[in-house]
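REVIEWER CHECKLIST
Item 1: Sequence provided? yes
Item 2: Single chain? yes
Item 3: Sequence as submitted:
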Amino acid sequence: GQSATSCPAFWPPAVGSHWKQTLLGLKISLSVLLAVITLATILANVFVVITILLTRKLHTPANYLIGSLAVTDLLVSVLVMPVSIAYTVTHTWAFGQLLCDIWLSSDITCCTASILHLCVIALDRYWAITDALEYSKRRTAGRAALMIAVVWMISISISVPPFFWRQVKAHEEIAKCAVNTEQISYTIYSTCGAFYIPTVLLLILYGRIYVAARSRILKPPPLYGKRFTTAHLITGSAGSSLCSINASLHEGHSHSGGSPIFLGHVKIKLADSVLERKRISAARERKATKTLGIILGAFIFCWLPFFVISLVLPICQDACWFHPILLDFFTWLGYLNSLINPVIYTAFNEEFKQAFQKLILFKKCSS
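Item 4: Structure as written out by the authors:
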């Protein structure tokens, strides 16, 4: 007898035609949605790169790392996402083995580099907030370039191994383009190197950054420090000029409670501008820590489902099954992180927001 799966053969032609039209409509809608995400990712990252290049104020080692992250996310949107649209919609690989190898290696390398960039940005922030004086001397463009080079070396070392066992199929026509998951050792190595180890590192770093930033924000700047190399002398007469002296002042040396210190009718006080700079610095630290926290949360939200499936599926093999649509959804959720990163930086980073607005206004005025 006929099985339930053969029922569509008895459907009227009109029903079959309607089903085909509906499927085609869904495929077109999905293509448009994914193309919009890809285009938005390209534009957002191009804007971040241009903003950094054209704004002298943003030419700092910390922003070079952010710029490098934007370039990496731009590579994801140009090299990986357009090909992925065609493959996601059709579920058939029609580009041959060579392009499959190039696409897969670009996917693994660029996505891993994007994730590892978040680690070096967090590491740079951690050193800057916990060892401010010493690290400010070492925080150079050369050091940022070295960190970026290490990120790409690790990313390439994670993407290269599959080539060693894929070469056998180099001359065959393939209908599917995916990493060979039969090598369990590689699956563990790649998922740990690209996601699990960086995530643990990010969580530890962010925890320490948060604690350090909070203690610095809550601790008010002292009015009289242990030692001021220069202190403004303001004499009683209105017309007298300001001068500087070397003074060794200790907290709590005033003669009466909270009254200011007087040495021969000369009032020594910490300049308001110094307190103002400290207040602005604390506000910046708070914002930078908040931005990093949002980046970290978005990163885990986008990539965790994909990497859980990437690790679990090859290990449990036939015992586990996920719908291909769910796998596609988690893959694109990961790609979406390359759009979220530049959006967060332009929305939550005040310096970027101001520079971005100036560029937009400049373009409007010049057009």
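Item 5: Key structural point noted by reviewer: The first strand starts at residue 228 and ends at 234.
Item 6: Recommendation: ____
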